[in-house]
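Progress report, Aim 2. The chain analyzed during this reporting quarter is listed below.
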Amino acid sequence: MGASSMNGTGNGAGPTVAVVLPGGGARGAYEIGALSVLLPALEARGERVSVWCGTSVGAINATTMAAFSHLPVREQSEQALACWRDMRKRDVIAPIAGLGGARSMLRLLAHVLGVGQASRVSVLDPRPLEASLDRWIDWRMLARNVEHGAIDSVCVVATSLASGGPVGFVSCRGGAPAHSDEDLRYVKTRLRGQHVRASAAIPLLFPAVEVTTPRAARGHYVDGGTRLNSPIKPALHLGAERVIVVGLEPFAAAASRVSAPQGPRIADVAANVLDGLLVDQVGNDLRRLAAINSFFAEDASVGTSRAARAYRIARGHRPYRPISYALVSPRRRGEIGRLADAVFERRFGGLRGLREPDYALMSRALGGRTRSRGELLSFLMFDPEFTEELIAMAKRDAERWLRRHPGFWCRDAAHDLSVGRMDHDRVLEQETLDEFRSLRRR
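Predicted structure tokens for the chain:
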């Protein structure tokens, strides 16, 4: 988090609670499964979510939940779970096998030859998603929920191709956050499908999306995960004092991977790229938040961090404040990928692949059964059995958090995240970089 990321506004009605949802394609079912356990537990404490932030599929889930926020909490979860249980690949991407794949290849060839629109270059065709989003999400109700105070704000993050930086499209009653010292721009708007599709446009897999409103932010955008996959920073800028983060891999730092004895396959390369864009950032951002809580934040119960206060006041920023968090993620790294691979073998292995040739084609293109194949399939396998098992896994993981944290919230970085001297030094290094960028833009 940058220098001003700890400046919340709050609404005076108790601590402001935000939910942060990262990207991950078909893994998004896990996010809703976790929330179906966490939100009723939060309500039992007399608290509610008032800020929703998401990137990529997290943007789809965040806007879906925001549109349901006028409903009782359990009904919100049931409606969102029903969306995922009914979801099929045809609701998200056009068929790959047959004419659909031929059209994609022709688009790629046209791009190589310098013919046609560069913005439409992609391996997959996500045109079905446009109609699906309008079916899943009541955009008018979302706007009404913000206007009438059922929620305070909703933010979806996309990456601008013009600037190369992340843009937070925000629906809120007041003004959008103004943080000139951050590499993140906020634009207030009435959220629509184009903003969410832009946030979910994974480069090369999906084409860039043209955003036409508001006028100040017109242009082409791709997946927000290329710059900001876990929108914790926007949640704090929007006033969050407590943050629920659902991750799709464990939040602890990843262990080094052992290289395969043979040369890397395309699946290995692609899996590592997606991990870096859509997975590892989440853990890095949380460790930074935990380090700030541990070393810099002010808390009346332990006194003031004078050095941190002096540093920030000298630069015109408010002091850091401690942020409570609830974290839900799988217990072991690669668990969702292994689940996807197991479901694929049961559902589409061998001759069973004839009933869904697209998945069989994907598997062949990825080089057969490997760890990386499962990782990549987990992003694209919108299959009811996989969805159901993801939801069940997420519920178990959310219940595990609640057992370990009877008070729901945690601030102790040592309890859930390994934070040490290196994190302290990295936060100071990031502060220096943020300060340099701020001065460069003035």
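The beta strands are 17-21, 49-55, 153-160, 166-172, 185-188, 209-211, 219-223, 242-246, 324-328. The two ends are 21 Å apart (CA to CA). These observations will guide the mutagenesis work planned for the next reporting period.
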